[in-house]
Amino acid sequence: MSAHPPQQITILGATGSIGVSTLDVIARHPERYSVFALTAHRQVDKLAEQCLRHAPRFAVMVDHAAALQLQTILRAAGCATEVLAGPQALIDVASAPDVDAVMAAIVGAAGLEPSLAAAQAGKKVLLANKEALVLSGQLFMDAVEASGACLLPIDSEHNAVFQSLPASYRRDPGAAGVRRVLLTASGGPFRNTPIEVLESVTPDQACSHPNWVMGRKISVDSATMMNKGLEVIEAHWLFGVPAEQIEVVVHPQSVIHSMVDYVDGSVIAQLGNPDMRTPIAYALAWPQRIDSGVGALDLIAISKLSFERPDFDRFPCLSLAYQALRAGGVAPAALNAANEEAVAAFLEQRLGFRRIADIIAATLERIGPMAVDSLEAILAADARAREIARDEIRKRSLTQ
Q1: Residue 100, C-beta contacts closer than 8 angstroms, at least 6 positions apart
Q2: Structural domain includes residue 116
Q3: pTM, whole model, 2 decimals?
Q4: What are the strands, taking DSSP E only, across 278-358?
Q5: What is the pLDDT of residue 1?
Q6: Does the pLDDT of residue 3 top 80, yes or no?
Q7: How far is CA 45 from CA 107, 119, 213, in A?
Q8: What is the DSSP string of 310-350?
Q9: Of 25, 45, 123, 130, whose CB neighbour count within 10 A is largest?
Q10: Per-residue CA distances from 107 to 30, 221, 290 (Å)
Q11: In the 8-state DSSP scheme, what is residue 308?
Q12: How many separate domains does the chain show?
């Protein structure tokens, strides 16, 4: 039994796969963790079920009508959870004084403001929302530095890199002797699909990931390898390494989650079954380790691990992400915004799969110089990039 009171946890994006996995880990350690707040966009029934099971102090629905429905359900069930609504409520439960840690798992640019608020408030930030760093890398890292927040990556790849670095790395990265950060990628569902066939793939095919269970947007990002491209940008900010020292390695088994290559010839890797509860448990308990509910890795059953170079012709989105990182400024925010708009259009069957990269490339070409030195400037750049992307989507729409 812990001698300390349970840590109070806010989960931003509780109904998504990361949120569900986080609640699973928390439920295994009631003496260590307590749920302060759960948030969702509009999945009323799922959030209601979570509130009844985990009894958070607050529940937030971004959609006001959904919040009213949730309140009605919880009151009828005799649940004391207080229901809040709107984007400001997300910020409030992420930065509340009683909160110890925030799981930032809202997908896309919508997660930026509450994640940044948690960092500014000096919280332990468990960052599953990679877009926060893609959009606002310098601003976000400055907030972490100024507030003394503890930033821990949840993406399996960045979590693996974090585990493979020495404890002294953040204090003195130059002394660590890091030569390269090697981010592994499964290659998604289309790793071996003939490129000409990709013109006609469906959303359901793109969302059928061979190793991971994820939401539809991130599943499409995995199929285009934009997910890995965003992770390259995120790794730059998390670990302070330039684009030239970040390499992507296609590893179809998803057992090695990433590696760090050192100047003395050592390569240190983190291995495990493909289950997000491992990085979640690691971050929740860091610097200790706790049971995550994930089974032991059976290397004999796996029998072999294979590696390939990424095919940039097959995965042009990965190349575009490197281009945006090297360009800096507004480019990463424009890359992310255009990708979100293009993926949404693809999922709605308004845009072909191979056109996603075309939309992003056209948006990067058209965006022009814009400041990204404040939250307001970042949001303005995001809005402008979305305008351009929607215009480009209209030109290529399948529904015309």
Answers
A1: 7, 8, 9, 123, 124
A2: yes
A3: 0.92
A4: none
A5: 46
A6: no
A7: 19, 30, 21
A8: --TTT-HHHHHHHHHHHH-TTHHHHHHHHHHHHHHHHHTTS
A9: 130
A10: 27, 12, 26
A11: B
A12: 2
3-class DSSP state of 36: strand
Helices (H) and strands (E) in the chain, counts: 16, 11
CATH code where residue 83 lies? 3.40.50.720
Question: Which tens digit of pLDDT belongs to each residue from 221-267?
Answer: 999 999 999 999 999 999 999 999 999 999 999 999 999 999 999 99
Note down the domain range covering 218.
155-189+208-232+240-312
Spatial distance between the Cα atoms of 240 and 157, rounded to a whole number of angstroms: 15
If we measure between CA atoms, which residue out of 81, 23, 29, 32 comes closest to residue 55?
Answer: 81
In sequence order, the β-bridge partners of residue 84 are: 60
Strands 58-61 and 7-12: unpaired
- Which of 185, 207, 308, 191 is closest to 255 using CA atoms? 185
Q: Which residue reads 């003195």 in tokens?
A: 172
Amino acid at 201: V
Residue 1 lies in a domain: no
Same domain (yes/no): 49, 169: no
* Domain C-terminal end among 286, 312, 338: 312
pLDDT at 125: 98
CA 330 – CA 390 distance, rounded (Å):
18
Neighbours of 123 (CB within 10 A): 25
- 141-178, pLDDT tens digit by residue? 999 999 999 999 999 999 999 999 998 898 888 889 99
Within a domain: residue 349? no
In a domain, 358, yes or no: no
Q: Could you tell me if 146 and 262 lie in one domain? A: no
Can you tell me which residue has the tokens 């989105």?
A: 317
Q: How many CB atoms lie within 10 A of CB 255?
A: 19
CB under 8 Å to 7, separation ≥6 — which residues? 32, 33, 34, 100, 101, 284
Give residue 102's identity as a one-letter amino acid code.
Answer: V
Q: CB–CB of 161/235 below 8 Å?
A: yes
- State percent of the chain over pLDDT 70: 98
What's the per-residue H, E or C state across 152-186?
EECCHHHHHHHHHCCCCCCCCHHHHCEEEEEEEEC
